[in-house]
Specification:
Blueprint: E1 2-6, E2 11-15, E3 19-26, E4 31-39, H1 66-72, E5 90-93, E6 104-112, E7 118-120, E8 126-128, E9 139-148, E10 153-162, E11 167-176, E12 182-194, E13 205-210, E14 218-223, E15 227-233, E16 245-249, E17 260-266, E18 271-277, E19 283-288, E20 296-298, E21 303-305, E22 308-314, H2 317-332, E23 346-348, H3 350-353, H4 359-371, E24 376-379, H5 407-418, E25 421-426, E26 430-431, H6 436-440, E27 460-461, H7 467-483, E28 488-491, H8 513-531, E29 536-539, H9 549-552, E30 557-559, H10 566-579, E31 585-590, H11 603-610, E32 614-618, H12 626-648, E33 650-655, E34 663-669, E35 675-682, E36 692-694, E37 704-710, E38 737-738, H13 739-744, E39 747-749, E40 757-765
Parallel strand pairs: 23-24, 23-32, 24-25, 25-28, 28-29, 29-30, 30-31, 31-32
Antiparallel strand pairs: 1-2, 2-3, 3-4, 5-12, 6-9, 7-8, 9-10, 10-11, 11-21, 11-22, 12-19, 12-20, 13-14, 13-16, 15-18, 16-17, 17-22, 18-19, 26-27, 33-34, 34-35, 35-40, 36-39, 37-38, 37-40
Helix pairs in contact: 4-5, 7-8, 10-11
Bound molecules: alpha-D-galactopyranose.
């Protein structure tokens, strides 16, 4: 790992353990180009890849075709309006409206470590942006200074690498050194121009994750051709609809192998992410804040900072890509003390009661849960104001004494006596039109003058870009936390931004609103964690609409989706796990038939699927069938015994039900390969004389493993052809078996009686 500057050839080599990015300063004017990014290359003079040192196309040799040069070069920081007609990374405008710009090389700085990113957030203060940090590894950073001579702007492009990661972290800081205000209309975090040779000179595929409420992060794959494929959010959050993520890959790339160029953004607001191919078959891939609903009036002396982009290259397919993201986020992004800890198994009352609960009901649930080994009760929406449905009271964060006589203090005391921890739900950024808060401060809602604000779930969004609103919100949450013994907060956000307008911003700065809103969320959560460092924070947004790397800087877990149907969850979780570590994924067992889909599923299958995330329950434990309740203690015990494999291990995808409707399967393997967990979920029944062999992944070929069936009774006839009790035993050797056999020859899985079934196998190496 390291960053090197080859002065004679004016080349920067940004190296990770297995990759190289080579940037070149080209021509006398200093155009910054990307000569190469991919598998490790030598520190050779790679300028030939850009047409050589005597490149006849550069402006100093062929100024009459200057525009043609820009339109063809692999530009690292392409700007708009000077001849590159592809999608630019930066668009800026002077006070007279001229919008062409050209940024050229000035200087560089290489330093050990990686600086924190603090960004101006209005009202003269700065906010720490979520960004990666060196952690226990070492880091190096390259900062390249470019300038725009006509407008008087400086752009500092930052590249950081870590000793233990194949990711490159990029961000851009723009400084106005002129005497005039300059308008930024677009400033992306990363642009990457890639030679088609990277994809074997065939058009690459692009994988994105798309969805909707209750259908988050489904894998979409299509071919890139001339033109652009783009995903985005203009909703003020990363969104249910698209992830700030794309993976360009060679045709034929799958989970196990193939070249992948992936990117994501450490940001929780509006974004754009895409790739396109130009007339010369160069692929341009980019990611950053969406230019829609965004302008920034950069005044003299001011700075604007983009969020950090994560770039990943691997030749090891999507599994390899996931390993890089997971390790990066665990080792260099998630700060929570709970990251590697066993999280308390929780029971949340949302699907159990919705708004219809009181202290007695919660205590009944808690009492029964405690008997089953569950460790924490989470009280969800409906405990405050007069909120008996979702039409009122957001903003009125005082307890509803009719439901909770004696308040939260009494409830938390009772829970403590029982030996249960207590968690609570908030939706701090919101305001109901029917609330005391709105009646007192209608101007605190984001809105546009003269326009009736758009309601979504009958609520508005608070203008947390204003300090008095932020302070009110903070005190509401912190006040409750100070008043009782609360171990956990579920921080929800159930609508998107619209009618963008803030009374705190003047006309020229109104385009800052969406960006400042996201900083407002970060500011609030940072303050909360500073005052309550032991708090376990789980982010949530109508399920998983704010599941992004930005939020992971604050919370070690995020609610994955409101869809708790285990079958549906297979696809949602498979998409989530492509980027995010399993330790971050809120996954709960819920009642059957499922509250969203009506699907009926065996309890053990619901358990197996939830056990690959941060585990809990979302059901009325007093009402479920007795045999299900009796299975809970064992599930809780399994969570605690295999939890560290899932949290800390490498994740391997074996089969996706979205590809082949029969089954889904995945593994977690500890870094030392001593322990592993295989989860297999059958999604379609078939005649019992039909068996399935699956091949394991990630094991040490030379280790011998003993296999233990967990989460189901091996005497259970559901596993056995016509009830033969020893059916399981014929499928794998009794004694230890080598990783080599398990990976190359595989394991025979029985067909399970009925439609759905699960097999969980814990593998332990024999010393
Ligand atoms: C969102 C969350 C749910 C629940 C409800 C409460 O939809 O994702 O888990 O908390 O809000 O209104």
């Amino acid at each position: 790992m390291g960053i090197f500057y080859d002065e004679s050839n004016r080349l920067f080599f940004i190296e990770t353990p297995n990759t190289t990015m080579c940037l070149a300063v080209v021509d006398d004017e200093g155009f910054l180009n990307n000569a190469y990014y991919g598998a490790k290359a030598g520190r050779d003079d790679l300028t030939y890849l850009l047409g050589g040192k005597d490149n006849p196309a550069v402006p100093s040799r062929n100024d009459r075709d200057r525009g043609c040069y820009f339109d063809k070069a692999r530009l690292e920081f392409p700007s708009g309006g000077t001849g590159d007609y592809r999608s630019p990374a930066v668009c800026v405008r002077d006070a007279q409206g001229h919008d062409s710009s050209l940024f050229t090389y000035v200087s560089y700085r290489i330093y050990d470590g990686k600086d924190e990113i603090h960004t101006p957030a209005g009202e003269g203060r700065t906010v720490r942006m979520p960004a990666t940090f060196a952690g226990e590894s070492s880091a190096q950073t390259l900062e390249i200074e470019l300038d725009e001579k006509v407008l008087g702007l400086k752009a500092f492009l930052s590249y950081s690498v870590f000793e233990d990661s194949d990711a490159i972290l990029k961000s851009v800081r723009m400084v106005n050194v002129s005497d005039n205000t300059v308008i930024i209309d677009k400033l992306l975090s990363s642009n990457l121009d890639i030679d088609l040779a990277a994809f074997g000179n065939h058009e690459p595929d692009i994988v994105t994750l798309s969805g909707s409420w209750a259908r988050e992060r489904r894998m979409d794959r299509r071919r890139i051709s001339r033109g652009t494929t783009e995903v985005y959010s203009t909703r003020g959050e990363s969104s249910h609809q698209f992830q700030p993520f794309s993976a360009l890959c060679e045709q034929g790339t799958d989970d196990s192998g193939g070249k992948v160029y992936a990117q994501t953004l450490i940001w929780s607001g509006n974004f754009v992410c895409g790739a396109g191919m130009d007339q010369f078959e160069t692929v341009r891939s980019y990611i950053g804040i969406s230019p829609e609903h965004f302008t920034w009036d950069l005044k003299p002396g001011e700075t604007f900072q983009t969020p950090e982009a994560v770039l990943v290259f691997t030749e090891d397919g999507f599994d390899g890509m996931s390993h890089i993201f997971h390790d990066l986020f665990r080792g260099h992004l998630i700060r929570s003390p709970y990251l590697y800890k066993d999280r308390p198994v929780l029971i949340n009352n949302w699907e159990a009661t919705y708004f219809n609960f009181n202290t007695d009901k919660l205590l009944d649930i808690a009492r029964e849960a405690k008997k089953c080994g569950i460790e924490m009760l989470v009280m969800d929406d409906g405990w405050f104001g007069k909120r008996d449905d979702d039409n009122s009271s957001l903003g009125d964060w005082f307890v509803n004494e009719k439901k909770l006589p004696g308040g939260i203090g009494r409830l938390s005391d009772e829970l403590e006596k029982m030996g249960m921890k207590f968690g609570i739900w908030f939706e701090p950024e919101m305001i109901s039109p029917d609330s005391d808060l709105y009646r007192a401060h209608p101007d605190w809602a984001i809105s546009s003058p003269g326009r009736i604000p758009t309601r979504i779930r009958n609520q508005y969004v608070l203008d947390i870009t204003r300090s008095e609103v932020r302070d009110y919100v903070y005190e509401c949450v912190a006040g409750i936390l100070r008043s009782a013994k609360i171990s956990y907060v579920k921080w929800d956000m159930n609508r998107q931004l619209a009618d963008l307008g803030s009374t705190g911003l003047d006309a020229a700065s109104m385009g800052r609103l969406s960006y400042l809103y996201t900083l407002g969320v970060y500011d609030l959560q940072e303050r909360l964690l500073a005052e309550f460092p032991d708090l376990l924070l789980e982010n949530c947004s109508g399920g998983g609409a704010r599941y992004d790397a930005g939020m992971l800087f604050f919370s070690p877990q995020i609610w994955c989706s409101d869809d708790t149907d285990a079958y549906e969850r297979l696809t949602i979780q498979a998409g989530t796990e492509m980027i995010y570590p399993l330790s971050t994924m809120g996954a709960h067992v819920s009642a059957s038939p499922n509250h969203i889909s009506g699907r009926v599923m065996p309890f053990d299958v619901r358990g197996a699927v939830a056990l690959s995330g941060t585990f809990g329950y979302e059901l009325d434990i007093t009402m479920i069938p007795g045999d299900e309740r009796e299975s809970i203690p064992e599930q809780v015990e399994i969570y605690h015994s295999i939890g560290s494999i899932v949290r800390e291990g490498d994740y391997y995808r074996i089969a996706r039900v979205s590809d082949m409707e029969l089954y889904d399967a995945w593994m977690s393997v500890t870094k030392d390969k001593e322990r592993a967990l295989l989860t297999y979920v059958q999604c379609k029944g078939s005649p019992q004389n039909n068996k399935r062999t699956i091949r394991l992944k990630g094991l040490d070929p030379d280790m011998k493993y003993s296999l233990k069936l967990i989460g189901s009774d091996d005497e259970n006839s559901r596993f056995c052809s016509r009830g033969k009790k020893d059916a399981w035993k014929v499928l794998a050797p009794d004694g230890p078996v080598s990783g080599r056999s398990l990976m190359n020859a595989g394991l025979m899985i029985p067909v399970i009686w009925g439609e759905y079934g699960q097999v969980m196998i814990e593998l332990t190496s024999e010393a």
